[in-house]
Amino acid sequence: MPIKANDPKRKTWLETSPDTDFPIQNIPFGVFLTRDDIITIGTRIGDYAIDLGALHQLGYFKGIDLTDDIFLQDTLNDFISDGRKTWRLVRDRIAEIFDKENPTLRDNEKHRSHILFTLDEVEMQLPVQVGDYTDFYSSKEHATNVGTMFRGKENALMPNWMHIPVGYHGRSSSIIPSGINIRRPWGQTLPADNTEPVFGPSKLVDFELEMAFITTDANVLGEPIPVNEAEEYIFGLVLFNDWSARDIQKWEYVPLGPFLAKNFASSISPWIVTLDALQPFKVEGPKPEVEQLPYLQYKGKKSYDINLEVYIAPENGDETKICTSNFKYMYWNMSQQLAHHTVNGCNVNSGDMMGSGTISGKTPDSYGSMLELTWRGEKPLTLSDGTERKFINDNDTVVMKGYCKNNEVRIGFGECRSKLLPAIKQ
Ligand code: MN
Q1: Keywords in UniProt for this one (predicted)?
Q2: Distance (Å, whole) CA 215 – CA 368
Q3: Contact 237, 278 (CB under 8 A)
Q4: Of residues 56, 142, 340, 341, which has the active-site annotation?
Q5: What is 228-259 written as a DSSP string?
C-alpha cells in the first residue's frame, strides 16, 4: 500500500513556512488541551494544531473504520492499537483534507473554526499512557566513551555488548512532555576519597540525547517478534531526554544497573512522528563488526537519517548549540531492539516506549551527554554568554531538536525542552 500522505509534491492550503518541521508530509500525532479546556487527539501542520476529534465528528473520516470516540480520548493508546493500516488511512485522509486543491474544509469557515487552533491556544499533553518504558544502550561510541571513563580503554566495551542490544526496564511514571520543568534530584553519592556515602542534591545532573519509539500491541506473551517484522509494530518516534544524575548513578548502579539516577524524569517531544512519515529517510546503519546471532540478523535498511541537536540556555540567556548527532549512528537499530526485547516471549503493548540509549557519534562535538562532551567535567564547555558548564546548572534549559531533510522535504520533531530547577528544600 503506497503512503499517499508522503507525496513530496503535495501543498497545503494552510500557511506554512518553508523550513517548518511540520509540512503536510509529516502529519504527526499528539494530544492537546484546547482553549475550551477539552482534551483531544490532534495533528499539526505548520503552526496549526488540528483537532482530529472535531474533524471526525464532522464526518471527515467517513469510510475509515474508526470508533466514534477514537480521537476524543486523552491518550493515543487505542488509536495506536488499531494498527498500521488504520494509521496509514488516517494520515492519507488528513493529507487529502488539507491539500491545496481540496475545497471541502478549505472553504468552510465554520468547520475551520472548530478544527484549527494556533499553537498558543493549545497545551501539549503526554501523547500516550506509557505502560512500560525500556531504555537501551545501543550507541557504540557512547558505550565506548562511558566504558573508557569508568574502566579504561582496554575494557571499555563489556564482552556482551557486541552480541546483545543491552537494555534495562526504566520507569514510566516520570516520563513528562516537553515544557514541564524538573527538579534537581536528591540522593546518595560517594564523594571522591570518601568511604561512606553522603546524602544531598546531585551535583552532576546530565541530559542524555536519545530518541524513543512507541509500539502498538505487538505480540502475545510467549511469542517473539521476528526482526524483519518489527517495524510493523512501531507507531512512531519522539525526541527523548533521559535525565541522569551521574554521581547517584556511579554509587548505586552495581550490580543491577540504573535506578534513582534515572527515574526522576525523562522528557519527550509531544508530537509522535510516524515511522511511515520517516520512510524517505531510511538508510543503512553501521555494519555488524562481529557476526550476530540469527534472530538479530536483518535484511534491508533499518536505520533512519535523523539529525539531532542539543542546546543549553541559561536563565534569561541565549541557546548555545553543544551537540550535533544523528540517529543513524546507532549500532543496534530499532528492529533489533524489539526482536531482542521479545525473543524470550516478553509481550509489548500499545503505548510502550523504548529509548534508544544516548546517541553519540565519532567526533567530540557529536557526543550525546555532558559526561562525554566535557569528559567527566575535565573539559568544560563555554556557552555564548561566556559561562562554563561541566554538567547542567540550576535554571538551565536543555533543548533537543531533531529533523530529517532531503532535497524535497523536511520532516521534523519540533523540540524537547525542559528546565532544571534547583533542588527542593529538605
Ligand atoms: Mn538512557
Answers
A1: Calcium, Hydrolase, Magnesium, Metal-binding, Phenylalanine catabolism, Tyrosine catabolism
A2: 24
A3: yes
A4: 142
A5: GGGGGGEEEEEEEE--EEHHHHHHH-TTT--S
The DSSP H or E segment spanning 151 is helix 140-151
Q: What is the pLDDT of residues 260-307, one digit of tens each?
A: 999 999 999 999 999 999 999 999 999 999 999 999 999 999 999 999
For the chain, how are helix, strand and coil distributed in percent, rounded to 5? 25, 25, 50
CA 51 to mean position of chain CA atoms: 22
Other CB atoms within 10 A of residue 102 CB: 14
**Cα–Cα distance measured from residue 369 to residue 374, given in angstroms and rounded to the nearest whole number:** 9
The binding site consists of 135, 137, 151, 208, 210, 242, 249, 253, 262, 266, 358
Please give the model's pTM, rounded to 2 decimal places. 0.98
Q: Is residue 204 a contact partner of residue 414, using CB atoms and an 8 Å limit?
A: no
Domains of the chain, start order = 4-124 (2.30.30.230), 133-421 (3.90.850.10)
For cell 509531544, what's the residue? 270
**Strand partners of residue 27:** none
d(CA 97, CA 93): 6
Q: Residue 357 Cα, ligand 1 centroid: separation in angstroms?
A: 5
Outline where DSSP puts E strands in 158-299: 167-169, 175-177, 182-183, 186-189, 198-201, 205-206, 209-215, 234-241, 244-245, 266-268, 273-274, 282-283
CA of 166 from ligand 1 middle (Å) equals: 11
User: What residue type is 389 in one-letter code?
Assistant: R
Give the Å distance between the CA of 101 and the centre of ligand 1: 45
* Cα 401 to Cα 26: distance, rounded to the nearest angstrom: 15
Q: Tell me how far apart the alpha carbons of residues 90 and 85 are, in angstroms, rounded to a whole number.
A: 9
Whole-number Å distance, alpha carbon 242 to ligand 1 midpoint, is 5
Spatial separation of the C-alpha atoms in residues 60 and 114, rounded to whole Å: 13
CA distances 207 to 12, 52, 101, 184, Å, are: 37, 33, 44, 12
Residue 38, all three cell numbers? 477539552
169 flagged as catalytic? no
pLDDT digits (tens, 9 = 90+) for 69-88: 999 999 999 999 999 999 99
